[in-house]
Specification:
alpha/beta, nine-stranded mixed sheet, Dihydrodipicolinate Reductase, domain 2, Rossmann fold, single chain, six-stranded parallel sheet, 352 residues
């Protein structure tokens, strides 16, 4: 299956290029980026690629069956629609879109054109998420009824469009697209209401909020919360889950690597905490009333599991690990949270 890349940012577009090149059944064919320098970099990395600065080149390329879109969020819906109407299968970076109107148009067009549409939810293979999912499915903390997630610290938000609300969608649309996807997958119940709050107190040179909190309520009474904060001098745990028989909590890991330097002895490189799977601890109430605590083991990280799952789905019919319906639900939550925050944190009720 021929793959075309729409967008070649080093952190995302190149990742997809390497993933496609390493996955049986996928064949890297073409790349498109508005930035001529990135087009040049793509050709240097993969000399066999056809390169262009126009998205229409991918839409019209008969050897491109699947287009992977890695552009800013405010362009996702428009480019997905253009590629699907050209008969291409589409994978879009997260978030899938900025609002429910866009996701409605996307899902309708995919159905009408009979093409594949999904979102790049590669964090479904993060070792800590997989360990938690396994613990829940095995009933190790009983029935999950409460879940908190957190990401952030106290530092200036990342630059470029990521921190510009009209382009990014807002603070929660970045990491929140992953964390809310985890929540949707771990709590398989209908969403009934969403509350969103935000703070703008420190970083006034960007348009995103400094902190956003998203609270989700489900039909079974379950509650979940996601916080992204760039003004948190003390980090909360990444994970905090309560069940009827126990709990799961996490501890962030700070990891540094060292490079030998014959003049300055060494250089230290800190790995961002967000990229290091945290320690997970299971706490379970025993028949005696005592609370037993043990560390959960994490599965090994795999190379390009998203792309392998995608290829196996398109070519062999294997189920998607992150179905389109979940990505649509994430956008539904994000839009409701933004509406709630704009109204001072009022409750936004959702049907179904």
């Amino acid at each position: 299956m021929g793959v075309g890349l729409l967008g070649y940012a080093p952190s995302v577009g190149r990742l997809h290029a390497e993933g496609a090149a390493a996955t049986p059944g996928l064949r890297l064919q073409a790349v498109c980026d508005l930035n001529p320098q990135r087009v040049l970099e793509a050709q240097q990395d993969f000399p066999e690629l056809r390169a262009s600065e126009a998205a229409s080149a991918l839409a019209e390329d008969p050897e491109v069956d699947l287009v992977i879109i890695s552009t800013p969020p405010n362009t996702h819906a428009r480019l997905c629609l253009e590629m699907m109407k050209a008969g291409k299968h589409v994978v879009c970076e997260k978030p899938l879109a900025l609002n429910r109107s866009e996701t409605d148009a996307l899902t309708q067009t995919a159905a009408e054109q009979q093409v594949h549409l999904s979102c790049h939810q590669n964090r479904r293979w993060d070792p800590d998420y997989l360990a938690i999912r396994s613990a829940l499915s095995n009933g190790r903390i009983g029935e999950l009824f409460y879940l908190e997630t957190f990401v952030g610290g106290f530092s200036h938000p990342c630059g470029y469009w990521h921190s510009h609300q009209p382009v990014s969608g807002g603070t929660a649309y970045d990491w929140g697209a992953h964390y809310l996807d985890w929540i949707v997958s771990l709590v398989p119940a209908a969403i009934t209401a969403v509350v969103g709050t935000r703070h703008k107190r420190v970083w006034h040179d960007v348009t995103n909020s400094d902190q956003e909190r998203v609270q989700v309520r489900f039909s079974g009474g379950q509650e979940a919360e996601f916080i992204h904060s760039d003004i948190a001098a003390a980090r909360k745990s990444k994970w905090y889950l309560l069940g009827t028989k126990g709990a799961i909590i996490s501890r962030w890991k700070s990891v540094s690597t060292y490079e030998i330097d014959p003049v300055h002895y060494f250089h230290q490189h800190d790995i961002p905490a967000t990229e290091m799977p945290p320690e997970l601890w299971l706490r379970r109430r025993m028949a005696s009333g005592d609370i037993e605590s043990r560390r959960l083991s994490l599965p090994a990280r795999r190379r390009f599991p998203f792309h392998r799952n995608l290829a196996d789905h398109l070519l062999l019919g294997e189920p998607l690990a992150a179905p389109l319906e979940d990505s649509v639900q994430v956008v539904k939550i994000l839009e409701a949270a933004a509406q709630s925050a704009a109204q001072g944190g009022s409750l936004v009720k959702l049907g179904g």
